[in-house]
Amino acid sequence: MMLVLGLESSCDETAVALVDEGRQVRAQRIASQDEAHIPFGGVVPELAARAHVERLTPMVATVLAEAGTRLEDVDAIAATAGPGLIGGVMIGLVTGKALAMAAGKPLIAINHLEGHALSPRLADPALDFPYLLLLVSGGHCQLLAVEGVGRYRRLATTIDDAVGEAFDKSAKVIGLGFPGGPAVERAARAGDPARFPLPRPLVGSAEPHFSFAGLKSAVLRGWSALEAPDAQAQADMAASFQHAATDCLVDRTARALTRAEGPLVVAGGVASNAHIRAALSALAEAHGRRFVAPPPWLCTDNAAMIGWAGIERLQLGQVDQLDAPARARWPLDPTAEPVRGAGAKA
Ligand code: KG4
Ligand code: ZN
Prior knowledge:
alpha/beta, Nucleotidyltransferase, domain 5, five-stranded mixed β-sheet, 42% helix
């Protein structure tokens, strides 16, 4: 049975996993760097890169030992080669190349977004192509028709911020700190989503694109207008924001349903949000479509999804050379046109 070692280091999670063709994650480690970045209220690229250097190699040894596997028994090394913070990406990719050389095994350079896009197939053996994917993370917010491994047709993207970024920035504004997404979800449980009227940018528009900058600014305005913000206000704003963001995701995804076949699938860090999962599940049900969401641990950054993408590529005989480049930007659908009003993000 094929066995792939996956490495992930494109943002602030250092992760290593050993995954097999039978969809078993034989061992995995995820080291979050939250403590290093908390004082700065966000990820500091240099600090992230340094932490990846220190942790990655010992974590490889730990994962192999835990699985009772030698490096020579692994069929390939899959490492994230982008997109992401370039320092971290280079460290993971170089480590992957060194391991591949040492073991005489092929290297597979994985697009981090492809890791997210295929992760639902690791969790659900019945999920076949094609499917409509809502990919929601800290840096990306896209709707993709996933037609096969390496075959991604972008139907929509954000014209400004990613939804995870909006969660993180709103959390910062209302004093919930970093990382923001999980903190907003937690605070929102005790909040009144109707207290703060917030905009739903682009809701109702014909193309299924996203926009979150106006929502984020509205959170800032609403929060600044409060005379004495307290814990209840924090909970109410978190709930109001989460509802508005969810409405945007649901409305935009509904638009795309007619443009792609198969189940509705959600992946990426924001897909771990229970409120958003429930709303998307209801949307799918209303349209008679199956809904698939990986377990929360597989939504946020991890190496099992990188190892799994490696398995999928290896099954097709797709491996890379040792000069595979590290890329800060790497769109899943290179043919997608830039969207009017969008910044330079891929
Ligand atoms: O996929 P991911 O772990 O890293 C990237 O590739 O960006 O996604 C991280 C993003 C962050 O913006 C984080 O705040 C958000 O996912 N996130 C959440 C939740 N957990 C993580 N957003 C909302 N609710 C959550 N429970
Ligand atoms: Zn990610």
